[in-house]
């Protein structure tokens, strides 16, 4: 049996050789990935593990909690590799002799995510997971399970909402999956505000968005001799063909940076909504409907150049982005990036559209993370964010927070996305169903609280 990769808890004050962890005090972890680490394949799996992996590439509705329960060893790496090769992107970009390096890269990403404090799926079946990961920090929400959930949602948007039709160039799809995989890499379970106020090393490096800046630097953080974004070799008839028409180390980190919620309004403005705070109905802005067509135009051009290069069996300079911009709309590529960012943001909030039971479980673990952060805020002598205050938590406040988030952020985002990807309407319908649940629950909790307080 090949050696297992592991996370190793470091003694206090120990030097951190592999993973700079600039988030302040806490269990610092380095990742050891053996040269011959092996990711389990779909064909090697049986029972619930295999079925859960199968459903990840076949259905919108998916349960990451159940998946990680049944695939405890490298769940994110396993899911990503399955998606790459099931969609043929693996064969497109990864030569056979580089597959072991791919495995090491994927496992390194997997183990740089912290493990969950708890997995609600364990409570459903009354068993305990053998989830790998060894020692290290446990995080309530922004952990490896969340990374799996966002990756599956991104895959679903690409393959179930006609995005593959509008993005014929496989490299665009490839980078979207990798952006989803790394988007919260190393997340410590605190927010940017906490990092800034506690003057963490991460905040000194990038005070505007320290978390997203750290996540986006995954290529420098992970050292395992495989960089998915420098290595973009194509293979045909045994020849390796290099193509340089997309600068990967700008595209993917840019999408990751845009997951910062403080950029929400800015992204909507980039997409064509003049006043993002008011959220005018997207259908009133023709630019929304143009996004997909622009993505198709740019992607078709890139795919044509890729095929031409492939026929020549040699590097021929690739696509000159500036030259292309001169012959088309100004800023076309930026708007294509905006479409990709919208998809990633919807996937990042994908639990809003999950089946109600699963969505409620995501809210539970989210608040467990919030309350743990509130404890750290109090310990640091900071004002505790009311949302993070476990001592004053109530059913009304919980329901109010969800109704507010759905109304101001979630619902408008999904409405906008459906304008450009109509076949994703089932996701919008699911968001509306879950919002109705929280509105009903808020009314019930308000009545209950009034009765408990002696109200009429």
Any key phrases for this structure?
456 residues; Catalytic domain of cyclic nucleotide phosphodiesterase 4b2b; two-stranded parallel sheet; 56% helix
Termini distance?
68 Å
Global mean pLDDT: 76
Subunit arrangement of the protein: single chain
The assigned CATH architecture is Orthogonal Bundle
The CATH class, by name, is Mainly Alpha
Strand % is under 5%
Number of helices: 21
Shape: globular
- Major beta sheet summary: 2 strands, antiparallel
- Count the domains: 1
Spatially, the strands of the biggest sheet line up as 1-2
In total, how many beta strands? 6
Radius of gyration: 22 Å
The H-and-E topology, N to C, reads as EEHHHHHEHEHHHHHHHEEHHHHHHHH
- Using the coordinates shown, work out and report the CATH topology: Catalytic domain of cyclic nucleotide phosphodiesterase 4b2b
CATH superfamily: 3'5'-cyclic nucleotide phosphodiesterase, catalytic domain
* Overall SS class: mainly alpha
Uncertain regions: pLDDT < 50 for 5+ in a row?
Answer: 5-20, 25-29, 127-135, 229-248, 273-286, 310-330
- Helix fraction bin: 55-70%
């Amino acid at each position: 049996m090949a050696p297992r990769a592991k996370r190793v808890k470091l003694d206090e004050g120990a030097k951190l050789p592999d993973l700079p962890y600039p988030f302040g005090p806490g269990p610092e972890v380095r990742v050891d990935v053996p040269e011959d680490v092996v990711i389990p394949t779909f064909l090697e799996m049986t029972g619930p593990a295999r079925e859960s992996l199968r459903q990840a590439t076949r259905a919108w509705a998916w349960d990451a909690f159940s998946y990680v329960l049944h695939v405890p060893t490298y769940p994110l790496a396993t899911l990503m590799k399955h998606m790459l090769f099931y969609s043929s992107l693996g064969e497109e970009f990864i030569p056979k002799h580089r597959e072991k390096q791919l495995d090491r890269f994927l496992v390194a990403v997997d183990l740089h995510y912290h493990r969950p404090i708890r997995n609600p799926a364990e409570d459903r079946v009354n068993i305990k997971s053998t989830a790998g990961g060894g020692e290290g920090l446990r995080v309530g929400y922004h952990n490896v399970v969340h990374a799996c959930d966002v990756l599956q949602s991104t895959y679903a948007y690409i393959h179930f909402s006609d995005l593959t039709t509008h993005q014929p160039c496989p490299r665009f799809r490839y980078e979207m999956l990798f952006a989803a995989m790394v988007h919260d890499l190393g997340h410590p379970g605190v927010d940017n505000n906490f990092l800034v106020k506690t003057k963490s090393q991460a905040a000194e490096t990038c005070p505007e968005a320290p978390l997203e800046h750290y996540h986006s630097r995954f290529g420098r953080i992970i050292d395992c001799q495989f960089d998915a974004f420098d290595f973009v070799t194509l293979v045909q008839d045994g020849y390796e063909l290099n193509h340089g028409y997309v600068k990967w180390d700008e595209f993917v980190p840019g999408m990751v940076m845009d997951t910062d919620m403080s950029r929400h309004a800015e992204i909507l403005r980039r997409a064509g909504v003049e006043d993002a705070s008011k959220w005018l109905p997207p259908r009133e802005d023709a630019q929304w409907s143009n996004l997909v067509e622009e993505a198709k135009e740019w992607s078709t051009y890139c795919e044509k150049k890729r095929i031409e290069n492939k026929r020549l069996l040699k590097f021929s300079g690739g696509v000159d982005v500036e030259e292309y911009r001169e012959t088309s709309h100004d800023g076309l590529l930026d708007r294509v990036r905006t479409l990709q960012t919208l998809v990633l943001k919807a996937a990042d909030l994908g639990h809003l559209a999950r089946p109600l039971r699963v969505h409620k479980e995501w809210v539970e673990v989210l608040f467990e993370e919030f309350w743990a952060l509130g404890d750290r805020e109090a310990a640091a002598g900071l004002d505790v964010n009311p949302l993070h205050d476990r001592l004053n938590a109530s059913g009304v406040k919980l329901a109010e927070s969800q109704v507010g988030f759905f109304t101001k952020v979630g619902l408008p985002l999904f409405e906008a996305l459906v304008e450009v990807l109509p076949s994703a309407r089932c996701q919008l319908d699911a968001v509306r169903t879950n919002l109705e649940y929280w509105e009903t629950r808020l009314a019930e909790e308000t009545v209950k609280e009034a009765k408990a307080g002696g109200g009429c």
